[in-house]
Structure to design on (280 residues):
């Protein structure tokens, strides 16, 4: 057994027996016989250095616990507790036998059925609308075709001023029209009362005249109205006396009904104007 001197200069044996705090690596032991004044100075020294130390006395053995020792111990306990919590959660998840219920399945199926029904209704509505538009286009085209006029017979120029270029002039243009096979009725009220529905235009290389005067007569008529029905014939007399239409002049007459195609008559006057001219 070794001896050591204390602060008073006396020899005291040092006990190397096993202390109560043996086995704790982060605790530094001090002698059992310590000068109280120096112990107080040792306690105040960490505060002066800006560190926090804890002085403990275990069975007369005074030691100190450094800050990093306490943090290390706390971190180790926290890590152990966190790992244990994760393991417990994993075990509970593996033991969980919960699944989808019949009610939840029914709700999902109903949602799918509703979405499919809405989609089908949208598609069917779009298809119906497209079909209706197609029908309207077809009917409109049929009306245009069925309401067309067609020329029947020759085109004649009558009541003319006989003569050559500079003296001969055409007064009236006469032709016969009928409705196309299976066509709808066309109103041929003339311009005598200013209530005509059909417009006739005249044009040549020098002039253009819209809505010229014309009259109608009925070689074949099945009723007393002015509608041109299927099987009827109407003779139209167009007044060209103000057009100064002389010899060797190309000209055109356009007959425009309210519906249907436009009937165009293109002719050229001869070199000599007779009283009656057949343009064949």
């Amino acid at each position: 057994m070794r001896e050591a001197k204390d602060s008073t200069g006396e020899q005291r044996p040092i006990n190397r027996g096993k202390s109560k705090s043996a086995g704790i690596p982060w605790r530094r032991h001090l002698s059992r016989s310590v000068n109280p004044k120096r112990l107080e100075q040792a306690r105040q020294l960490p505060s002066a250095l800006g560190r926090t130390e804890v002085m403990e006395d275990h069975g007369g053995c005074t030691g100190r616990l450094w800050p990093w020792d306490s943090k290390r111990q706390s971190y180790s306990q926290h890590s152990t507790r966190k790992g244990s919590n994760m393991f417990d959660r994993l075990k509970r998840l593996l033991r969980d036998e919960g699944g989808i219920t019949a009610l939840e399945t029914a709700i999902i199926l109903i949602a799918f059925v509703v979405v499919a029904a809405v989609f089908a209704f949208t598609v069917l509505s779009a298809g119906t609308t497209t079909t209706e538009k197609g029908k309207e286009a077809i009917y409109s085209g049929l009306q245009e075709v069925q309401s067309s006029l067609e020329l029947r017979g020759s085109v004649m120029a009558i009541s003319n001023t006989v003569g050559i270029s500079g003296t001969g002039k055409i007064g009236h243009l006469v032709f016969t029209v009928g409705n196309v096979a299976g066509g709808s009725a066309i109103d041929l009220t003339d311009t005598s009362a200013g209530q005509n529905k059909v417009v006739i235009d005249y044009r040549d290389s020098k002039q253009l005249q819209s809505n010229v005067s014309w009259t109608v007569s009925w070689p074949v008529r099945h009723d007393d109205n002015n509608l041109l029905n299927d099987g009827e014939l109407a003779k139209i007399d167009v007044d060209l006396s103000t057009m100064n239409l002389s010899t060797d002049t190309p000209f055109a007459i356009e007959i425009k009904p309210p519906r249907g195609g436009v009937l165009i008559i293109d002719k050229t006057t001869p070199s000599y104007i007779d009283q009656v001219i057949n343009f064949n």
Summary: The radius of gyration is 61 Å. Residues 149-278 form a domain with the Immunoglobulin-like fold (CATH 2.60.40). The chain has three domains: 25-73, 104-146, 149-278.
